[in-house]
Design a protein that fits this description.
Strand order of the largest sheet: 2-1-3-4-12-11-10
Order of helices and strands: EHEHEHHEHEEEEEEEEH
Number of helices: 6
Number of strands: 12
Amino acid sequence: MFGGEPLIGVLALQGDVREHVAALRASGARAQPVRRDTELSEVDGLVIPGGESTTISRLLAMFGLLDPLRERIAAGLPVYGSCAGMILLAAKVLDGREDQHQLGGLDVIVRRNAFGRQVDSFEEDLDVTGVGSVHAVFIRAPWVESASPEVEVLARVSDTPDVPGGERAAGRIVAVRQGSVLATAFHPELTGDTRVHRLFVKMVEENS
């Protein structure tokens, strides 16, 4: 940390990078895009934004970030993953590609595109532990199918209609925390509400 402000990176391979950087800066942190191992080595925490999880997975390997990021997460680097970031941080993914790389950090099983396709995107007010009532935006979002006892469930959807195919959606887990790893199935960077980012900044500060 420099001058009391943590330096938090935003993985800049795909997704809402600028929005996360702006939200982190508004939450009292210094923030920078991360595309290289040298940049990853400098940060006190990392945000993995939404996007397409299989594409981000391939790009992590192409840019030489896959193993260094896995090692830093295993060593306790605070990480926040939104949407695709949640998928990449999960120990196991349902409906993913066989060649998709996982980063680990969350002892959960996540279902990819669980709520349906792009046209099935929706918004809902959620009660998020440690944050309060949040207006959440879900875009081709995953959900947590199951979580180990070590994982703290922070939020579940409530009145969400069943998804195409008949899967019951109400009550599904959409925000979790395990130690220094935080993940949401929704996109707080799109709403102008920085409280989820402030929670993550606090996690980084407490870890430093």
